[in-house]
Amino acid sequence: MGVVLSLEEGKRGSPTIGRLLDLTAADMARVNELILSKAGSDVEMIPEIANHLISSGGKRLRPMVTLAAAQMFGYAGEGHVKLATSVEFMHTATLLHDDVVDESGMRRGKKTARMIWGNQASVLVGDFLLGQAFRMMVDVGSLDALDVLSTAASVIAEGEVMQLAAAQNLETTEDEYLAVIRAKTAALFSAAAEVGPIIAGVSRSDRAALRSYGTNLGLAFQLVDDALDYGGSSKDLGKNVGDDFREGKVTLPVILSYRRGTAEERDFWKRAIEGHENDGTALEKAFGLMARCSAIGDTIGRARHFGEIARDALAPLKPTPQKSALLEVIDFCISRVS
User: Fold this and answer.
1) 119-146 pLDDT tens trace
2) What residues contact 166, with CB distance under 8 A and at least 6 apart?
3) How far apart are CA 66 and CA 329, in angstroms?
4) Is 252 in contact with 223 (CB distance < 8 Å)?
5) In the chain, where does DSSP find H-type helix?
6) pTM of this structure
7) Which of 21, 158, 163, 192 is deepest in the core (most CB within 10 A)?
8) Neighbours of 12 (CB within 10 A)
């Protein structure tokens, strides 16, 4: 089965990732070949489930960041392709696991794997992909890269548990929520950006620059996703608008709306999030309350803030086409809500 890359180019006149696509095109072709190879198994259900999600599209930002970050320091070996594939497998595994935990029915406009094959198969295939990811990391032979990616895998799992503990808890603070997404989303962006410089043999300061870039890009990316769930489109989001609300997720727009609301409005959020009174009428009311207290705009403002930190992280590095492309990724991620 071929790999379909659904790579958004933004609205007319808005930022794109065209430069990143061009710079990584040849390497991404090799990544896609490796994805198909490593997702294969004699156990028939494994490639069926893996390819269901892999071939359903996605921006592929994380592996492209790995490739560009290696290229910008002149890396000319083979390791960056294996590490980029490992990063994509880690991401795919977390999606399979997330859909089980969240009891999600749709992803990227298709039924989730759990809806077709069940929860047990989805979790186990996610575990298989993680195993394949670690095998490729070992093949690269860099203990530092293995350390960064294996640490990210642990942090992501911690983030999932933190999110579970915070689920439907309207007393969650903004700081607590940022800690969740720093672990659940930003950790993999950070690792994806750092492993390229590692295998290129660069200085610790250059590694730290890419690590900071990835972390803050990941935070911005997730906050934009949070905003899109209440103010975007299914095409932009890759799932149905309002899914977070229907699943009772306490994301930043909800946290801000709850804390800024009147007593009556907080009662609504308790009924909707904690009491599962979240039908279409309730969702429309949620939209209105968020607009009244600027929860969406302020969530986007937070995303822009982290985007600027990501931009500053790369500022000391010498100009290269890859650096320019990585800076454009920041604008592209935030432009999804403009």
Assistant:
1) 999 999 999 999 999 999 999 999 999 9
2) 172, 176, 177, 180, 250
3) 13
4) yes
5) 18-38, 45-54, 61-71, 79-102, 113-117, 119-140, 143-166, 174-181, 187-199, 204-231, 234-237, 243-246, 252-260, 263-269, 280-292, 295-314, 321-335
6) 0.91
7) 192
8) 5
Tell the burial category of 165 from Cβ atoms under 10 Å away from its Cβ (0-12, 13-18, 19+): exposed
- pLDDT digit string, tens, across residues 28-38: 999 999 999 99
Q: Are 338 and 14 in contact (CB under 8 A)?
A: yes
Domains of the chain: 18-335 (1.10.600.10)
Q: Residue 77's closest CA among 205, 181, 195, 220?
A: 195
> For the residues 268-296, what does the mean pLDDT come to?
94
Tokens representing 170 are 């309207």
The amino acid present at 266, given as its one-letter code, is: R
The answer to whether 193 and 165 have CB atoms below 8 angstroms apart is: no
What's the CA angle centered on 73, arms 70 and 78, to 5 degrees? 40
The amino acid that residue 55 corresponds to is S
DSSP string of 48-97?
HHHHHHHTT----HHHHHHHHHHHTTT--SSHHHHHHHHHHHHHHHHHHH
Burial class (CB in 10 A: 0-12, 13-18, 19+), 311: middle
Measuring CA to CA, how many Å separate 181 from each of 195, 259, 332? 20, 19, 19
